[in-house]
Each structure stands twice: as C-alpha cells, then as structure tokens.
Amino acid sequence: MTLKSALQDLRETTLAAVSGLLAKLAYLASLRRREGGYLHWGMSLVHGEEASDRALKAAHTEVLSTVLRTPIPDLMEDLREASQFSEETAGAYVEGMREQFSELLPSPPDEASARHLNSILVALSSLEKNQKRATPSASSQPLPPGR
Predict the structure, then answer these.
(1) How many angstroms separate the CA atoms of 91 and 98, rounded?
(2) For residue 134, which phi and psi values (nearest 5 degrees)?
(3) Closest CA to 14 of 42, 37, 49
(4) Hey, CA dihedral for 26, 32, 37, 43, is it positive or negative?
(5) Residue 52 belongs to what H/E stretch?
C-alpha cells in the first residue's frame, strides 16, 4: 500500500528529478499517448493506470500553467539550462518544443492556453536568434576612445 497519492508521488519523485519548467513540460508531453491519456510504466505499476493518468494530466496542467505565468526573462534562463542539459543549442531546444506543440498541451487543449504558449515559444525562439546576432564576436576590436 502506498502512502502518497499518485500526484504527490509524481511531484515529489519524478518531476523533482527534472530540472526546469520547460524540461518538465517537455517530459510530461513525452508521456502522452497518440490515442489519448498518458503512459508512465512505474506510476501505472504503483498507483494503477487510471490514477496515474489523472495525476499526469493534473501535473501537465499545473506545469503548463506555471510556464504561462513565468516572465520571459526567467524562461530564457530556463531554456538555456534545459538546452545545456540536453546537449543541444537553445535554439534547437525551443524549435523541438515548437515541433511537438500539440503534445505540450494537456488534452483537451484550451485555445487560450495554446495561443499563449505558442506566443511564448515564438518569443523565446526570436529572442534566442536575435541574441546570437547581437552578441559581438570575439574577433571584433573595440573602437578607440572618442569615436
């Protein structure tokens, strides 16, 4: 018999091991089945498939809600950390999220949340691209004083 609810277990064990909001959102999206619902072998084994599915959907909704409330500068930092951990560029990481957009949303998708998340991903992608262009190269020479 388990002493924790499936949601509490998910929050305190599985999600606690995933660093960052965007990584948590991507992780939960990866557990969605094409035919609907979620699949997490360990949680289903411990808590049952139905309780596991409810907990994963609730956690997915919570994490999405937190992402939608988080300021863009904080999400930019989160993006950099998530991309370093996954060993890909921040631009590639956010583009990967954009490619799996429908999975990032709990089912059934809320249209307002979908639009908001899309705007966040577009903003993160644009900021990442513009930041690369705005960063001076190491070979550029500073201008002499008075110029």
Answers:
(1) 11
(2) -80, -15
(3) 42
(4) negative
(5) helix 49-69
By C-alpha distance, which of 100, 107, 104, 99 is closest to 116?
A: 104
CA–CA separation, 26 and 39 (whole Å): 14
pTM of the model: 0.84
Q: Give pLDDT tens digits for 83-113.
A: 988 889 999 999 999 999 999 999 877 899 9
96, two tokens: 């990967």
Omega before 108 cis (within 30°)? yes
Inter-CA distances, 34 with 4, 21, 99, 105, 129, Å? 28, 23, 15, 13, 32
DSSP state of 87: T
Q: What angle do CA 70, 65, 18 make, to 5 degrees?
A: 80
Nearest to 53 by CA among 14, 6, 94, 85: 6
Least Cα distance to 92 among 125, 138, 56, 133 occurs for 125
